[in-house]
C-alpha cells in the first residue's frame, strides 16, 4: 500500500486521521503551505540580517574583481581647484629648455598676413610685442626688465589713455581684436621715423641701463634679465616678423650671450676692486685711501676698522714689486724709497679699458708661498685710457691744467700696467671698462684708485636712456586761460564757451 508523499508526517508531529479513518490530506496540504511561507519569511530575514551585518562591519570583498571595482570613498573625493591656484603648474615659456613648437601651415599663413612686409616695421613690431606678452607668463622681476627694455627701445608701455574697454564691446570682438584692444604696448606715431637697430638697443640696455636701474646682486638675476631679452628676439626670428633685420637681430642675440658672462664678472670685479696692492699704494702715496685707516682709533674696535695700516701697505707693495716688477723698477723703487723721494701723480681721472691680462704664473705663486703666505699672488693688467662717453664734454681753456691734481690729458700716456691680485684678476676680461682715477709713481709703475663703476666690453650710451620714465607733459592750469592753448580752453569750457570766457578775460 502506497502512502502519498504529502501525507507523510513531519518530524516530531503525528499524522492527523479523519473521522473515516483516512489521513487528512487537506489539512496536511494547508499546513505544508503555511510552513513554506514561514520558511520563506525566515530566509528573507536572514538575508536582511546578512546585508545589515555586511554594511555595519564593512567586510572586505571576497574576490579580486570586487576589490578592484569597489571605490575608495576617501580617494574618490577631488578637491576643487580655486581660481587662484589655476595655472600655477603651467610653463612660463622662459624655462631653460623651453622652446616654441614648430609652426603649422595655418599659423604660417596667418603670420604671412599678420607680418606682411608691405606693412611698416613699426606696425609689425607692435603686433609681435603684443602677441609675445600674451604668450608668455612673466613674474614681477621679469616684467620689470621687459617693460624697461621696451621703453628704452621707444615703445610706450602701460594702459592706453582714454581707451577703456567695455565688456559689452569685447563680447562682439574676436580674439585678435581683443588682444589689440587690451594690449599695453604701442609704438607712437612720432617715433615711426626712428632707426630700427636691435643690436644697438641691446648693447645700450644691457650695459648702461640694466646695471643702473635693475639690481644684479646674484647670477640668477643676470641670467633672468639676459634670457628675457633673448627669448623675445627668438620669438621675432621664429615668426619672421622683420626678415629685413634678421642679421641685426642675430647680432643682438649674440650680445645677450656675451652680456650673460660679462655682466656677472663686472659685478664681481667691482666688489673686489681695487685690490690690496692698489689700496696699499693709495694709502702710502696718495689717493682715496690716503689717511683713511681707522684701526688705531679706540672707537674703531666696536665700529670696525676701515682702510689699511701703513705697515701692512708697505709689505704688500714691496712683495708685489719684488714678485712681478721688472729689475729696473725694483732698483729705482729701492733707491727712491731710501732717499724718501717717492712721489705719485694723478695722470687720469676718468678711467681705463683692459686690453690684456697676464695671469699669475707658478714662479710668482711659489715666491709668495715661501716668503709671504698671508698675501695673495699678484698678476698684471694692461690697459689704455678710457673716458665714459656719457660724461659731459670738458670745457676748459687750451692752456688750463686738467683736473684737480694738475694732471696732463690722458692721451699723453698710451698704455698702463697695473699689479692686481689673483682674487680680482680672475674676474677681469679684455675690453672691460673701469671708471676710476689712475696714478703714476716716479719709479715707473701705475696704480688705480677707488673704483666708481665697472662696465662690459660693449658699453654703449644712447639717447634712448632719456626716454625711461618719460611721460608726455600736460597743462595742469585748469583755472587759467592761456592764449593759443586749446587744451586749457577745452578744460575750462570747451568750444565756443571757452572762447567767450577768454574774450571776457581779455
UniProtKB/TrEMBL annotation:
What biological-process GO terms show up in the record? regulatory ncRNA-mediated gene silencing
Tell me where on the tree of life, at the top rank, the source sits: Eukaryota
**Which named protein is this?**
Arb1 superfamily domain-containing protein
Q: Segment Disordered: which positions?
A: 1-96, 483-506
Skewed-composition ranges (Basic residues): 75-89
Q: GO CC terms for this protein?
A: ARC complex
One Pfam entry for this protein is Arb1
Which InterPro entries does the entry mention? Arb1
Positions with biased composition (Polar residues): 37-46
Origin organism of this chain?
Ajellomyces capsulatus (strain H88)
